[in-house]
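Hi everyone,

Forwarding the result from last night's run.
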Amino acid sequence: MKLMNLRLATVGAAVGLLSAACFAQGRRVLAIGPWTFADGNVTSRSMVIDTIRRIAEHQGFTVIDQDAAMKFNDYNTPGFGLHHGRPYLADLARYAAAVQVDHVIFGNASWHTRSIWVGTGPKTISTATIDLFIYNAKTNTVTYQKRGAEGRSDERESVLKDVGDVILTPLITVVSGGPATPREQRAAQIALGRAFRPWVMRRNNPR
């Protein structure tokens, strides 16, 4: 227990220095987590975190190192209690205070990857579903949520310009007959773009 507390204190001190410097510059500090995943491989799950980081940083947030963000979960029990699929506000407040951030992006990502028959042969497709929440520690409220945002790997790029404008990176290319991982990644990119789009539009076009 002493070792766990020492590790958390070390992480907190390091994150605290970063947070103090960012606040001094008027920057908002954000952590990504907790996120839960269903299906999807490690590479696809990492893409979810990387895409969220890129979007948040483009919106002016300083995102703390992901290892520091996750050590809180590793060294503290109990973890996050869930209510209707999301952590309790008290747990989010405790988490934000521990890693010294004022915003937390958390949620759920799941995949359904399968083969379907198209034309004369099978085709692998993947559908990703994202539940996205943004928590403001200063007001102790969830200020944005989007449940059930979906993306399917075989959607045409011609109808996905709005998604590309949000995720700020080209969609993963998939090859006919190729492995499932790129399809999971592409589906996740599309779902995240749709989940974040209303929030990004609101921030970029305030009334």
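Residues 36 and 108 are 5 Å apart (CA to CA).

Cheers,
N.
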